[in-house]
Each structure stands twice: as C-alpha cells, then as structure tokens.
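A.,

Following up on our hallway conversation. Structure tokens first:
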C-alpha cells in the first residue's frame, strides 16, 4: 500500500486529519515533526535554536527520504516541507500528495495562541503568516495530486481525503 502524504500550511489540520485518515484507511499515522523529534531526541524549537532553520530543513529532508521508503503510511508533513523541490521530488509519482486547503483567515485564527512553532514567535506574527501563506500556497498546489478543503471537521475532511485518493486510483 502506498503512502498518503498531507501537506499544507501550519494549522491546516494535517495531524488531526491525518490521524483520522490513518484510522479509517488502515494505514499507520506518522507525524513528520514528531518523527524528527524522536530521532534527534530534541524538540523542533531546540533544533531551530541549535542548528538554525537550514539545519532543521536538512533533517526534514532526510525524514522525507526515510519515510518515502516505507509503505502503508499516512504522513503529516511539516508546513515547510512541500515548499522545497527536493522533498516534493522524493514523494512525487510514488505516493499520493494531498493538500489541505484552509483560508488564510482561518489559519490566522487557529495560530493565534501558538507558542511552539519557531517561525511564529515574533510580534509581527500575522504579517509573517500572511507573507508565508501567499508565497507557499502556489508551491503546495503544484506539489499536490489532490486538493481537499480543510474547513470541515477532521473526520469529514478525512473521509473526503480517502474518497479522493481512492477515486484517482481507479
Ligand atoms: C514549519 C511547520 C511546522 C514545523 C516547523 C516549520 C513551517 O510544522 O515543521 O515549525 O515551516 O511551516 P506544522 O506545519 O506541523 O506546524
């Protein structure tokens, strides 16, 4: 069984929807950030502090390579992973890449109280979210095999993902 890889902006619901997709499709769920944290025995925020964003991006790339060699997974990628061609190339054509599409205003609301994501711990957070979102959305769209609205409940969105994945395989 191939992998389903969820991509999209921070706060679009990749992990919560991903858990539901895994449960309902008989796959194993892997959160890419947790996978990196377990492997390095460090929190993502510590990795950013110690090795900078570029150090984190290298670890993320290795995680993509390792996870793509496994099968039967639902992978919730980190929000930056599918903005890099080298990561898209790892999964493209092998696994099904699904973008969870959530409007900017909803994302801003969901990330309002975030205290963990290193890129967002700054006073001009909303400006950063808007700029990153506008820059990244076209990249996510071109990476994705399927685009699903992430505005519904995680369970409804999960069923929409599973149905769409099944229908492109027919
Ligand atoms: C990032 C998103 C985070 C995490 C890291 C960088 C990004 O994952 O990988 O903080 O660049 O968008 P989530 O999308 O799960 O928050």
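Then the amino acids I'd put at each of the 170 positions:
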């Amino acid at each position: 069984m191939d992998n389903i890889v969820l991509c999209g902006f921070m706060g679009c619901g990749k992990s919560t929807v991903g858990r539901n997709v895994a449960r309902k499709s008989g796959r194993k769920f892997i959160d890419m950030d947790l996978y990196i944290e377990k492997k390095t025995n460090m929190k993502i925020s510590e990795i950013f502090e110690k090795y900078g964003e570029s150090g984190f991006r290298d670890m993320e790339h290795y995680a993509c390579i390792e996870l793509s060699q496994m099968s039967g997974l639902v992978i919730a990628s980190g929000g930056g992973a599918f903005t890099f061609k080298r990561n898209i190339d790892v999964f493209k054509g092998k696994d099904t890449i699904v973008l969870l599409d959530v409007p900017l205003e909803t994302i801003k609301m969901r990330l309002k109280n975030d205290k963990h994501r290193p890129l967002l711990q700054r006073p001009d957070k909303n400006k950063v979210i808007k700029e990153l979102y506008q820059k990244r959305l076209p990249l996510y769209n071109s990476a994705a095999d399927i685009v699903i609205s992430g505005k519904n409940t995680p369970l409804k969105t999960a069923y929409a993902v599973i149905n769409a994945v099944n229908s492109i395989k027919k």
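The chain has a mean pLDDT of 96. Curious whether your intuition agrees with the design.

B.
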